[in-house]
Amino acid sequence: MHNASLIRPASPADAPGIAQVHVESWRSTYPGMLPDRYLIGLSTATHEKRWRSLLSGSAPPRGRRTFVAQETGGRIIGFASCGPQRTGLPGYGGEFYALYLLDHAQGQGIGRRFLAVMAQHLLVAGTQAALVWVLRDNPSRYFYERLGGDLLAEQPIGFAGTKLMEVAYGWTDLVPLARLAADPRVGG
Ligand SMILES: CC(C)(COP(=O)(O)OP(=O)(O)OC[C@H]1O[C@@H](n2cnc3c(N)ncnc32)[C@H](O)[C@@H]1OP(=O)(O)O)[C@@H](O)C(=O)NCCC(=O)NCCS
């Protein structure tokens, strides 16, 4: 049971744990969507380096914030990051950039809690509305629908030499999402 897991802002020391979740969850989520050779080639060492530099105080991208979920015992079982919207869709100042959990940590309310924590962060930063881009073929898109996201747009993207379609879900008011942190199903 992981509902008692702690969600907290990430620090550079979390880079190895985040990299491990990143690689494991991509390999479990994206077969059939991303090329096998890309998934096989994912390297925790490379991602650890990237995450360490992203999380280090030297040059964090403006307004970006990353959170981790840590289970009892200290293992990182998920991460999420958000910040200013990058794609220029009008009316949505914020963006949920990433949200990934290890398989065994899914389906227990942690994803909902991550979204709530990111919504709270964006609201405190003065952003009322946000969106997320997700691969059209990723069944996790229905998680965002369940959490009240409206389907906003669809666009092609090139990734690892493949043409893919992604869809955007948006929330014009982050307040109800932020309030989910108080949902008893979400745990502490
Ligand atoms: C998507 C993800 C973050 C959801 O987190 P989670 O902790 O498993 O989801 P929760 O337990 O918080 O679920 C919240 C609600 O969404 C629903 N939900 C979760 N995943 C769903 C899915 N794939 N389809 C439909 N509903 C879903 C749950 O049933 C729950 O509904 P309820 O309110 O009726 O109980 C997680 O499953 C994950 O890491 N998936 C793989 C990585 C991924 O695809 N990330 C998104 C990349 S953009």
TrEMBL record:
Alphabetized GO MF terms: acyltransferase activity, transferring groups other than amino-acyl groups
N-acetyltransferase domain ranges (all copies): 5-182
Keywords recorded for this protein, A-Z: Acyltransferase, Transferase
Record bears the keyword Electron transport: no
Protein name: GNAT family N-acetyltransferase
Lineage of the organism: Bacteria, Pseudomonadati, Pseudomonadota, Alphaproteobacteria, Rhodospirillales
